């Protein structure tokens, strides 16, 4: 039994309140799963980026269309 909700074939949203350091930021915001499977949201060069690890065979990555400003804000 898993403590995580089943996300397969379901609509869902990731929302994160973040504070960026001066000059932007890089790094993981949230992830679910492990080395082999699961979605994640991270910053790459100040841009929110979604990744979905599919059994380590594929990792579709979707970068956000806008950069996060250098102030506290709600990430898209």
Automatic annotation (TrEMBL):
Organism: Thiocapsa marina 5811
UniProt name for this protein: Uncharacterized protein
Lineage top rank: taxon: Bacteria
Organism ancestry: Bacteria, Pseudomonadati, Pseudomonadota, Gammaproteobacteria, Chromatiales
